[in-house]
Write a structure and sequence with these properties.
Blueprint: E1 4-9, E2 18-23, E3 32-41, H1 44-51, E4 64-65, E5 69-77, E6 89-93, E7 103-107, E8 112-113, H2 120-124, H3 129-140, E9 148-152, H4 157-168, E10 172-177, H5 182-187, E11 192-195, E12 208-213, H6 217-223, E13 227-235, E14 250-253, H7 260-271, E15 279-283, H8 288-297, E16 303-307
Parallel strand pairs: 9-10, 9-12, 10-11, 12-13, 13-14, 15-16
Antiparallel strand pairs: 1-2, 1-4, 3-5, 3-7, 3-16, 5-6, 6-8
Helix pairs in contact: 1-8, 3-4
Bound molecules: NADP nicotinamide-adenine-dinucleotide phosphate.
Protein backbone atom coordinates (compact mmCIF):
# COMPACT_ATOMS: atom_id res chain seq x y z
CA UNK A 1 0.00 0.00 0.00
CA UNK A 2 1.18 3.56 -0.74
CA UNK A 3 2.37 5.95 1.93
CA UNK A 4 -0.29 7.95 3.76
CA UNK A 5 -0.27 11.55 5.08
CA UNK A 6 0.31 12.25 8.77
CA UNK A 7 1.15 15.18 11.05
CA UNK A 8 4.49 14.14 12.51
CA UNK A 9 6.20 15.66 15.56
CA UNK A 10 9.92 15.57 14.70
CA UNK A 11 11.29 17.20 17.88
CA UNK A 12 9.92 19.04 20.92
CA UNK A 13 9.34 22.71 20.14
CA UNK A 14 7.11 25.26 18.42
CA UNK A 15 4.73 24.92 15.45
CA UNK A 16 7.61 24.25 13.02
CA UNK A 17 8.35 20.96 14.74
CA UNK A 18 5.12 19.58 13.28
CA UNK A 19 5.27 18.53 9.61
CA UNK A 20 2.77 16.89 7.28
CA UNK A 21 4.84 13.95 6.02
CA UNK A 22 4.37 10.69 4.10
CA UNK A 23 4.48 7.63 6.38
CA UNK A 24 3.96 3.91 5.88
CA UNK A 25 0.36 2.81 6.43
CA UNK A 26 -0.32 0.93 9.69
CA UNK A 27 -1.57 -2.63 9.86
CA UNK A 28 -4.44 -3.69 12.12
CA UNK A 29 -3.07 -6.00 14.83
CA UNK A 30 -5.04 -8.54 16.83
CA UNK A 31 -8.16 -6.93 18.29
CA UNK A 32 -7.67 -3.83 16.13
CA UNK A 33 -9.37 -2.29 13.12
CA UNK A 34 -7.86 -0.04 10.46
CA UNK A 35 -9.82 3.25 10.36
CA UNK A 36 -9.84 5.58 7.35
CA UNK A 37 -9.84 8.90 9.23
CA UNK A 38 -12.38 11.47 8.03
CA UNK A 39 -11.95 13.91 10.95
CA UNK A 40 -9.96 14.22 14.19
CA UNK A 41 -10.41 16.44 17.24
CA UNK A 42 -7.76 19.00 18.28
CA UNK A 43 -7.03 19.03 22.00
CA UNK A 44 -5.28 21.21 24.57
CA UNK A 45 -2.93 18.27 25.08
CA UNK A 46 -1.52 18.58 21.53
CA UNK A 47 0.53 21.74 22.04
CA UNK A 48 1.65 20.55 25.49
CA UNK A 49 2.95 17.34 23.93
CA UNK A 50 4.56 19.33 21.11
CA UNK A 51 6.38 21.64 23.53
CA UNK A 52 7.48 18.73 25.74
CA UNK A 53 5.71 20.25 28.76
CA UNK A 54 4.20 16.91 29.71
CA UNK A 55 7.13 14.68 28.75
CA UNK A 56 7.37 13.25 32.28
CA UNK A 57 3.74 12.09 32.28
CA UNK A 58 3.68 11.26 28.54
CA UNK A 59 7.21 10.43 27.33
CA UNK A 60 7.31 10.24 23.52
CA UNK A 61 9.58 8.35 21.16
CA UNK A 62 10.18 10.89 18.39
CA UNK A 63 9.32 11.15 15.57
CA UNK A 64 5.69 10.38 16.35
CA UNK A 65 2.24 11.20 15.00
CA UNK A 66 0.05 13.39 17.25
CA UNK A 67 -3.75 13.26 17.64
CA UNK A 68 -5.79 11.42 20.25
CA UNK A 69 -9.35 11.11 18.91
CA UNK A 70 -10.91 10.44 15.53
CA UNK A 71 -13.97 9.59 13.47
CA UNK A 72 -13.92 7.60 10.25
CA UNK A 73 -14.76 4.35 8.47
CA UNK A 74 -13.45 0.86 9.19
CA UNK A 75 -11.32 -0.20 6.21
CA UNK A 76 -9.99 -3.54 7.48
CA UNK A 77 -10.30 -5.70 10.58
CA UNK A 78 -7.56 -7.57 12.43
CA UNK A 79 -7.65 -11.04 13.95
CA UNK A 80 -10.13 -11.56 16.77
CA UNK A 81 -12.32 -8.54 15.94
CA UNK A 82 -15.93 -9.50 16.59
CA UNK A 83 -18.06 -6.36 16.85
CA UNK A 84 -16.97 -4.13 13.95
CA UNK A 85 -17.01 -4.73 10.18
CA UNK A 86 -15.54 -3.07 7.13
CA UNK A 87 -17.60 -0.01 6.24
CA UNK A 88 -18.77 0.79 9.80
CA UNK A 89 -18.76 4.49 10.77
CA UNK A 90 -16.86 4.75 14.06
CA UNK A 91 -15.53 7.32 16.53
CA UNK A 92 -13.37 7.09 19.60
CA UNK A 93 -10.31 8.06 21.58
CA UNK A 94 -7.17 6.11 20.70
CA UNK A 95 -6.04 5.65 24.28
CA UNK A 96 -2.69 6.78 22.80
CA UNK A 97 -1.40 8.91 19.92
CA UNK A 98 -1.60 8.84 16.13
CA UNK A 99 -5.02 10.14 15.05
CA UNK A 100 -3.63 12.82 12.70
CA UNK A 101 -3.16 10.41 9.80
CA UNK A 102 -5.17 9.11 6.86
CA UNK A 103 -5.22 5.59 8.32
CA UNK A 104 -4.96 4.54 11.98
CA UNK A 105 -4.97 1.12 13.66
CA UNK A 106 -7.30 1.35 16.70
CA UNK A 107 -8.31 -1.16 19.36
CA UNK A 108 -11.87 -2.28 18.60
CA UNK A 109 -12.71 -1.84 22.30
CA UNK A 110 -12.16 1.95 22.05
CA UNK A 111 -14.59 2.57 19.20
CA UNK A 112 -18.29 3.44 19.19
CA UNK A 113 -20.68 3.66 16.24
CA UNK A 114 -21.31 7.14 14.84
CA UNK A 115 -25.08 7.84 14.89
CA UNK A 116 -26.54 8.40 11.40
CA UNK A 117 -27.54 11.94 12.37
CA UNK A 118 -23.94 13.01 13.07
CA UNK A 119 -21.36 13.79 10.40
CA UNK A 120 -17.68 12.94 10.93
CA UNK A 121 -16.73 16.45 12.05
CA UNK A 122 -19.42 16.41 14.75
CA UNK A 123 -18.39 12.89 15.77
CA UNK A 124 -14.67 13.72 16.00
CA UNK A 125 -15.43 16.52 18.49
CA UNK A 126 -16.95 14.15 21.04
CA UNK A 127 -14.79 11.20 22.16
CA UNK A 128 -12.37 12.77 24.60
CA UNK A 129 -13.75 16.07 25.92
CA UNK A 130 -17.37 15.04 26.40
CA UNK A 131 -16.47 11.86 28.29
CA UNK A 132 -13.63 13.39 30.34
CA UNK A 133 -15.92 16.24 31.40
CA UNK A 134 -18.71 13.84 32.40
CA UNK A 135 -16.43 11.56 34.40
CA UNK A 136 -14.49 14.36 36.10
CA UNK A 137 -17.77 15.95 37.19
CA UNK A 138 -19.81 12.89 38.14
CA UNK A 139 -17.30 10.17 39.06
CA UNK A 140 -14.34 12.11 40.48
CA UNK A 141 -16.27 15.22 41.54
CA UNK A 142 -19.46 13.43 42.68
CA UNK A 143 -21.54 16.54 42.02
CA UNK A 144 -24.93 16.75 43.75
CA UNK A 145 -27.94 18.98 43.19
CA UNK A 146 -27.68 22.31 45.01
CA UNK A 147 -23.89 22.24 45.30
CA UNK A 148 -21.83 25.22 44.21
CA UNK A 149 -19.37 24.42 41.44
CA UNK A 150 -16.63 26.54 39.84
CA UNK A 151 -15.52 25.43 36.37
CA UNK A 152 -12.11 26.86 35.41
CA UNK A 153 -11.67 26.95 31.65
CA UNK A 154 -15.40 26.75 30.91
CA UNK A 155 -15.19 27.84 27.26
CA UNK A 156 -12.81 25.04 26.25
CA UNK A 157 -13.44 21.53 25.00
CA UNK A 158 -14.08 19.95 28.40
CA UNK A 159 -15.49 23.11 29.97
CA UNK A 160 -18.33 23.55 27.48
CA UNK A 161 -19.64 20.08 28.25
CA UNK A 162 -19.05 20.33 32.01
CA UNK A 163 -21.11 23.54 32.27
CA UNK A 164 -24.08 21.78 30.66
CA UNK A 165 -23.75 18.60 32.76
CA UNK A 166 -23.43 20.60 36.00
CA UNK A 167 -26.47 22.70 35.14
CA UNK A 168 -28.44 19.56 34.31
CA UNK A 169 -27.34 18.04 37.66
CA UNK A 170 -28.91 20.99 39.49
CA UNK A 171 -25.67 22.62 40.64
CA UNK A 172 -25.17 26.36 41.01
CA UNK A 173 -22.63 26.93 38.24
CA UNK A 174 -19.84 29.50 38.42
CA UNK A 175 -17.59 29.51 35.36
CA UNK A 176 -14.47 31.32 34.17
CA UNK A 177 -13.80 32.27 30.56
CA UNK A 178 -12.28 35.17 28.67
CA UNK A 179 -14.72 38.05 28.34
CA UNK A 180 -15.42 37.41 24.65
CA UNK A 181 -16.57 33.86 25.54
CA UNK A 182 -18.82 34.89 28.47
CA UNK A 183 -22.06 34.91 26.45
CA UNK A 184 -21.33 31.46 25.05
CA UNK A 185 -20.72 29.99 28.52
CA UNK A 186 -23.80 31.66 29.97
CA UNK A 187 -25.83 30.20 27.09
CA UNK A 188 -24.67 26.71 28.07
CA UNK A 189 -26.23 27.10 31.52
CA UNK A 190 -23.69 28.87 33.75
CA UNK A 191 -25.42 30.93 36.45
CA UNK A 192 -22.42 33.24 36.92
CA UNK A 193 -19.60 33.85 34.44
CA UNK A 194 -16.36 35.49 35.55
CA UNK A 195 -14.26 37.04 32.76
CA UNK A 196 -10.76 35.98 33.75
CA UNK A 197 -9.16 38.68 31.58
CA UNK A 198 -11.05 41.40 33.49
CA UNK A 199 -11.68 40.09 37.00
CA UNK A 200 -10.07 37.92 39.67
CA UNK A 201 -12.36 35.03 40.53
CA UNK A 202 -11.15 35.05 44.18
CA UNK A 203 -12.78 38.46 44.62
CA UNK A 204 -16.17 37.25 43.42
CA UNK A 205 -16.59 33.62 44.47
CA UNK A 206 -16.40 31.72 47.77
CA UNK A 207 -17.66 28.60 49.54
CA UNK A 208 -17.36 26.39 46.46
CA UNK A 209 -18.11 22.67 46.92
CA UNK A 210 -16.36 21.51 43.74
CA UNK A 211 -13.78 23.17 41.50
CA UNK A 212 -13.21 21.55 38.13
CA UNK A 213 -9.74 22.69 37.09
CA UNK A 214 -9.38 22.47 33.32
CA UNK A 215 -6.63 25.10 33.25
CA UNK A 216 -3.92 24.23 35.80
CA UNK A 217 -0.93 26.35 36.87
CA UNK A 218 -1.65 29.59 38.65
CA UNK A 219 -5.43 29.18 38.28
CA UNK A 220 -5.27 25.94 40.24
CA UNK A 221 -3.05 27.40 42.97
CA UNK A 222 -5.48 30.29 43.46
CA UNK A 223 -8.53 28.04 43.54
CA UNK A 224 -7.84 26.69 47.05
CA UNK A 225 -8.88 30.09 48.45
CA UNK A 226 -12.46 29.83 47.19
CA UNK A 227 -13.09 26.23 48.30
CA UNK A 228 -15.61 25.42 51.06
CA UNK A 229 -14.15 23.66 54.10
CA UNK A 230 -15.13 20.19 52.82
CA UNK A 231 -14.80 21.09 49.16
CA UNK A 232 -12.85 19.25 46.46
CA UNK A 233 -10.74 20.29 43.49
CA UNK A 234 -10.61 17.85 40.58
CA UNK A 235 -7.92 18.66 38.02
CA UNK A 236 -7.44 17.27 34.52
CA UNK A 237 -4.67 19.78 33.83
CA UNK A 238 -2.17 19.38 36.70
CA UNK A 239 -0.99 15.79 37.28
CA UNK A 240 0.89 16.97 40.39
CA UNK A 241 -2.23 18.27 42.17
CA UNK A 242 -2.09 15.55 44.84
CA UNK A 243 1.52 16.40 45.72
CA UNK A 244 0.64 20.11 45.97
CA UNK A 245 -2.66 19.84 47.85
CA UNK A 246 -2.52 21.91 51.07
CA UNK A 247 -2.78 19.94 54.29
CA UNK A 248 -6.41 19.25 55.22
CA UNK A 249 -7.74 19.96 51.72
CA UNK A 250 -8.96 17.52 49.05
CA UNK A 251 -7.36 17.62 45.59
CA UNK A 252 -7.80 14.85 43.01
CA UNK A 253 -6.10 14.16 39.70
CA UNK A 254 -8.46 12.81 37.05
CA UNK A 255 -7.14 10.69 34.17
CA UNK A 256 -9.66 9.84 31.49
CA UNK A 257 -10.09 6.32 30.11
CA UNK A 258 -12.11 5.27 27.04
CA UNK A 259 -15.78 4.55 27.81
CA UNK A 260 -17.82 3.50 24.79
CA UNK A 261 -21.11 3.24 26.70
CA UNK A 262 -20.80 6.79 28.04
CA UNK A 263 -19.74 8.12 24.63
CA UNK A 264 -22.78 6.53 22.98
CA UNK A 265 -25.11 8.02 25.61
CA UNK A 266 -23.55 11.45 25.07
CA UNK A 267 -23.80 11.16 21.28
CA UNK A 268 -27.49 10.27 21.70
CA UNK A 269 -27.97 13.42 23.80
CA UNK A 270 -26.32 15.51 21.06
CA UNK A 271 -28.50 13.93 18.36
CA UNK A 272 -31.67 14.63 20.34
CA UNK A 273 -30.73 18.21 21.22
CA UNK A 274 -30.23 17.61 24.94
CA UNK A 275 -26.55 18.55 24.70
CA UNK A 276 -24.74 21.17 22.65
CA UNK A 277 -21.40 20.24 21.09
CA UNK A 278 -19.61 23.31 19.82
CA UNK A 279 -17.26 23.00 16.85
CA UNK A 280 -16.00 26.51 16.25
CA UNK A 281 -13.32 25.77 13.65
CA UNK A 282 -12.77 23.12 10.97
CA UNK A 283 -9.34 23.04 9.35
CA UNK A 284 -7.50 21.05 6.67
CA UNK A 285 -4.47 18.88 7.42
CA UNK A 286 -2.09 21.53 6.03
CA UNK A 287 -3.63 24.04 8.49
CA UNK A 288 -3.48 21.74 11.50
CA UNK A 289 -0.09 22.77 12.93
CA UNK A 290 -1.25 26.40 12.98
CA UNK A 291 -4.58 25.39 14.57
CA UNK A 292 -2.75 23.53 17.36
CA UNK A 293 -0.69 26.67 18.02
CA UNK A 294 -3.86 28.83 17.99
CA UNK A 295 -5.30 26.52 20.64
CA UNK A 296 -2.34 27.54 22.83
CA UNK A 297 -2.42 31.28 22.17
CA UNK A 298 -6.09 32.06 21.48
CA UNK A 299 -8.27 29.05 22.24
CA UNK A 300 -11.46 28.82 20.19
CA UNK A 301 -14.60 28.13 22.14
CA UNK A 302 -15.50 24.44 22.16
CA UNK A 303 -13.54 22.30 19.74
CA UNK A 304 -11.39 22.62 16.63
CA UNK A 305 -11.62 19.67 14.25
CA UNK A 306 -9.34 18.71 11.33
CA UNK A 307 -11.15 17.25 8.32
CA UNK A 308 -9.25 14.72 6.19
CA UNK A 309 -11.92 14.03 3.59
CA UNK A 310 -13.64 16.60 1.36
N1 LIG B 1 -6.40 14.16 32.41
C1 LIG B 1 -7.08 13.85 31.31
O1 LIG B 1 -7.48 12.70 31.11
C2 LIG B 1 -7.37 14.93 30.33
C3 LIG B 1 -8.28 14.71 29.26
C4 LIG B 1 -8.55 15.77 28.40
C5 LIG B 1 -7.94 17.02 28.61
N2 LIG B 1 -7.07 17.18 29.63
C6 LIG B 1 -6.49 18.49 29.95
O2 LIG B 1 -7.57 19.26 30.45
C7 LIG B 1 -7.37 20.63 30.13
C8 LIG B 1 -8.56 21.16 29.33
O3 LIG B 1 -8.60 20.49 28.09
P1 LIG B 1 -9.43 21.12 26.88
O4 LIG B 1 -9.31 20.16 25.76
O5 LIG B 1 -10.77 21.52 27.37
O6 LIG B 1 -8.54 22.42 26.55
P2 LIG B 1 -8.94 23.69 25.69
O7 LIG B 1 -10.06 23.35 24.77
O8 LIG B 1 -7.67 24.22 25.14
O9 LIG B 1 -9.54 24.71 26.76
C9 LIG B 1 -8.76 25.32 27.75
C10 LIG B 1 -9.51 26.58 28.18
O10 LIG B 1 -8.79 27.16 29.25
C11 LIG B 1 -9.22 28.49 29.27
N3 LIG B 1 -8.31 29.35 30.02
C12 LIG B 1 -7.04 29.73 29.73
N4 LIG B 1 -6.56 30.52 30.69
C13 LIG B 1 -7.54 30.63 31.63
C14 LIG B 1 -7.65 31.31 32.87
N5 LIG B 1 -6.64 32.03 33.36
N6 LIG B 1 -8.79 31.20 33.57
C15 LIG B 1 -9.82 30.46 33.10
N7 LIG B 1 -9.80 29.80 31.93
C16 LIG B 1 -8.65 29.88 31.21
C17 LIG B 1 -9.39 28.94 27.85
O11 LIG B 1 -10.54 29.76 27.88
P3 LIG B 1 -10.88 30.94 26.85
O12 LIG B 1 -11.09 30.24 25.53
O13 LIG B 1 -12.13 31.54 27.36
O14 LIG B 1 -9.67 31.84 26.84
C18 LIG B 1 -9.61 27.62 27.10
O15 LIG B 1 -10.86 27.58 26.50
C19 LIG B 1 -6.05 20.69 29.35
O16 LIG B 1 -5.03 20.98 30.28
C20 LIG B 1 -5.90 19.28 28.82
O17 LIG B 1 -4.54 18.96 28.59
C21 LIG B 1 -6.76 16.15 30.47
Amino acid sequence: MNDIRALVLTEYGGPDSLKVSPVAPPVAGAGQVLVRVHAAGVNGLDWKLREGYVRDAFPLQLPTILGIELAGVVEAVGAGVTRLRTGDRVMGPLGGLGAYADLVAVNEANLSPVPDALDFVQAAALPLASVAAWKSLHLAGEIRSGQRILIQGAAGGLGGFAVQYAHQAGAVVYATARDSHSGYVRGLGADHVIAYDKEQFENLVSDIDLVLDYTGGDVLSRSWAVLAENGTIVSTASPDIAANTPVGRRGLWFQNTPDTARLQAIADDVVHGRLQSEVSAVVRLDELAAAIERNRTHPQRGKTVVRFSD
